[in-house]
Amino acid sequence: MEKSEILVSTTEHIPGVEYEIIGEVFGITTQSKNVVKNIGAGLKNLVGGEIKAYTELLSEARDIAIDRMRENAVKMGADAVVMMRFDSDSISQDMETVAAYGTAVKFK
């Protein structure tokens, strides 16, 4: 199965589908912005409002984390991931870690 075919659900149950639990799956990434974008973000911080460079950073990190979680699920022979969640943390002012995790399942 290709990783793009792995169904990812934030719910515990997929309606109409029976499955067995395989185990936990994870995807993690740590991202940072370049110096120019950090300077721009610092200036925006003075006047307030959304800091788009960091919004983009977190969106990109989220997508990478989900992609890596799907890769992990494929390696385990899963058909889907249920109960998917995110966790994030700042390592420093300009670095963010995002983890996607859930339960890999195999359809019966």
Q: Which characteristics define this entry?
A:
elongated; 2 helices; 4 strands; alpha+beta; 108 residues; 4-stranded mixed β-sheet
Description:
Belongs to the UPF0145 family. It comes from Companilactobacillus baiquanensis. This is UPF0145 protein ACFP1F_07185. InterPro entries: UPF0145_dom_sf, UPF0145_YbjQ-like. There is one protein chain. 34% of the residues lie in helices and 39% in strands. The protein is α+β, with helices and mostly antiparallel strands and 108 residues long. Strands 1-3-4-2 form a 4-stranded mixed beta sheet.
Summarize this, please?
With 108 residues, the chain is an alpha+beta fold. The chain is 34% helix and 39% strand.
Which residues sit in consecutive blocks of at least 5 with pLDDT less than 50? none
Approximate strand percentage: 35-45%
Percent helix, as a range, is 25-40%
Tell me the Rg in angstroms: 17 Å
Order of helices and strands: EEHHEE
- Strands in their spatial order, largest beta sheet: 1-3-4-2
Anisotropy-based shape: elongated
Count of alpha and pi helical runs: 2
Please summarize the sheet with the most strands: 4 strands, mixed
Distance between the termini: 15 Å
Mean pLDDT over all positions = 87
Structural class: alpha+beta
Strand tally is 4
Topology:
Layout lengths: L6 E2 L10 E14 L2 H13 L4 H24 L4 E13 L2 E13 L1
Parallel strand pairs: 1-3
Antiparallel strand pairs: 2-4, 3-4
